[in-house]
Amino acid sequence: MALLVPVVTLAACGQPDPQAVTPSPTPTVTAPSAPATPASPTPPPAEPTPAAAATPAAASPTLTPDAERGETGARDVLLDFARAIELGRVDQAWALLSPADRRKWTRPAFRALFADLDRPTVAVPTGVIEGAAGSSYYTAPVTITGTDRSGRPVRIEGEAVLRRVNDVDGSTPAQRRWHFQSLSLDWTH
User: 115-164 pLDDT, tens per residue?
Assistant: First the structure.
């Protein structure tokens, strides 16, 4: 996750790559981009942008059914959890937890885990997917780092286990989606 932020930040800067703008001896490389700049000195009307942003596909990419059932779907849920912690949306992260973990950490207790943590960074490296008794399980390490109010480094380590029922007859749509089975977090300050 920490590597993704700088890439997204650089992409959002909008700074052109000097090598990409430099004219090339091959006209086919520069022809598509060169006419667009001189032909329309003013930006296009604002109407198409809001309409495009309003579509669900523009707001959040939808996974294919195969991707949703596989490791990509599990990682998507895990990354939602990581993003929520990093953005300070601890209640949103708590809501993703299993009922057993929500009993283990009440909402106030879960908030307290992160209350003194400044600028948390959540690392969720690739995990392992396994199948057993009609279900798939995805297990991945979780490391949360930051600093406390005194500026001392903080490290919380654990493991997330996600589960989905493998399209078994009688299973509900909620059971067939990836969800947290368990989460362990240990403060290793």
Answer: 989 999 999 999 999 998 899 999 999 999 999 988 999 999 999 999 99
3-state secondary structure the chain: CCCHHHHHHHHHHCCCCHHHHCCCCCHHHHCCCCCHHHHCCCCCCCCHHHHHHHCHHHHCCCCCHHHHHCHHHHHHHHHHHHHHHHCCCHHHHHHHCCHHHHHHCCHHHHHHHHCCCEEEEEECCCCEEEEECCEEEEEEEEEEEEECCCCCEEEEEEEEEEEEECCCCCCCCCCCCCEEEEEEEEECC
Within 8 A by CB and 6+ apart from 110, the residues are 90, 93, 94, 97
Q: What's the confidence (pLDDT) of residue 11?
A: 34
When pLDDT is cut at 50, 70 and 90, the band that residue 61 belongs to is low
Within 8 A by CB and 6+ apart from 81, the residues are 93, 96, 122, 124, 160, 180
Residue appearing with tokens 């493998």: 166
pLDDT reported for residue 180: 97
Average pLDDT over residues 17-28: 36
What tokens were used for 133?
């008794």
